[in-house]
Write a structure and sequence with these properties.
13 helices; alpha/beta; 313 residues; homodimer; four-stranded parallel beta sheet; Rossmann fold
Amino acid sequence: MFTKIDFEQVKARISPFVHETSIVSSQSLNELTGNSLFIKPECLQKTGSFKIRGAASKVTSLQGQNIKGLVTASSGNHGQAVAYMAKALSIKSIIVIPNNAPEAKIKAIKAYGAEIVMVGPKSNERLEMAKDISQEMEYIYIPPYDDYEVIKGQGTIGLELINWGHSIDKVFVPIGGGGLLSGIASCIKAINPKIKVIGVEPQGSCCMYTSIKAGERKEISPDTIADGLRTVIPGEITFPIVQKKVDDIILVEEGEIKEAMKLVLERMKLVIEPSGAVSVAAMLKEKGEGKNLVAVVSGGNLDIMKIAEIIAK
Amino acid sequence: MFTKIDFEQVKARISPFVHETSIVSSQSLNELTGNSLFIKPECLQKTGSFKIRGAASKVTSLQGQNIKGLVTASSGNHGQAVAYMAKALSIKSIIVIPNNAPEAKIKAIKAYGAEIVMVGPKSNERLEMAKDISQEMEYIYIPPYDDYEVIKGQGTIGLELINWGHSIDKVFVPIGGGGLLSGIASCIKAINPKIKVIGVEPQGSCCMYTSIKAGERKEISPDTIADGLRTVIPGEITFPIVQKKVDDIILVEEGEIKEAMKLVLERMKLVIEPSGAVSVAAMLKEKGEGKNLVAVVSGGNLDIMKIAEIIAK
């Protein structure tokens, strides 16, 4: 599989497009829990989520090719990341989104200068449309997670954690399609296999947990506020990597996700989205044993009114 | 005055106690304003504000002395910073606060293990009590701003901005007693005097602006939501430094402060306190000319319910 050098090469390649997010902590949360808690805040990443790492990795792997444009199917963070990359490279992009996507997300993607194509609400319709556009217009299709270059891009977070130099016992990572988790797990296990890598899913949307238990990819019907984690089935490429490299998968409840968002807002001064908060929720459930725990917070993109709602509860 | 080496020495001395906060930006805010906007987020600093820099600088300047304890008068960020430093050094601390201080602030200071002494609501009562305690108990008094070591500590932010390597046209800095502003201005002007350093005050609490206009220190009656900036008169030491080193002072309205907090929460995923938002408010008022502007955000300590209130407006 991947080696340390693979991730170092990708990190160097994507560095013009990506921040190295600095790790934050909170003394008061440490005292509350009896562990040393750290957050890798990809909410402070360009475009507000880690997705830019994978998109940049994919695009920069095509060096020498004449890239006409980029296309993908995503109304969320991945769509913003692809639009941003296209803009950074002064090429065109088309983002395929469902016709029921919220106005705020459409605005965010348009703000990066992408063209938007709307199709029906089903995810296979979007995917087909994106692939059609890719063929007809010779635009590069950027997959959200099931791609080795994308996975390596997300894995650069693992490299930054290792290079941080601080001792780490466990890393908690949200699971959507499994790109972030398989990237980070591949990187960390290639360098320091003693560090435990834990995937986290909402109880209402746990296709990876279900599939790992079953030993094969299983479909589920997701129901969670964590909109970035509403995946129906794990990726073909990501699933076997998670099987091999990840130590455990933990499930968290909806109330725990909201409580984690609130605590991080209050104690760490960071806005994190529900999908990013699942890793924090899992970290907060750990027994207090003076361990060094890191939660990778995947992003911070959510409607500002939602923040007010969550605080008021 | 101070030289680059002074700040480098202080930065090395305080580095065990202080984060180097990484600078954040927002593409969407840049497009909104026509400038490149950056934030130096001291809300992500230990204790949630820049005050730890000054406190750490003062304490570490006393090397070789046997320090029994620390004492100061402050119910806000400075109180937390002094309590934190005492805890980090395993010594005692006493924080003198007014008997009308909000419960949340008292809790935060107590959480760092400090002893609290309450006196009447007047600031001179607190100061006298702190100085009495300092003498009687041989605790070191840590001034909030009017002290060369404290000023140099806050000035390390200027050094981090210079070392960032990115071109900077203007830096915006909130003014309370003037410690943060005089520190940053001294540092930047010692290294790269071309960078403009701008102080920012709320219209309802502008003792520095009023004093600079008058050519001497003037008293005012502060009235602003920016609770950290409710200063009655500029410092004796900070005032002449601001006179000499600072390019301009800008005033912002209360509505502009709230709007800046909201924008930073929404676009930059950061919780900032009203006192920290004044610099962002001033930066947002700049004409769009493709300039590189940095707002130093002094802190992020505010009641979580206040955040909900500000969003809902």
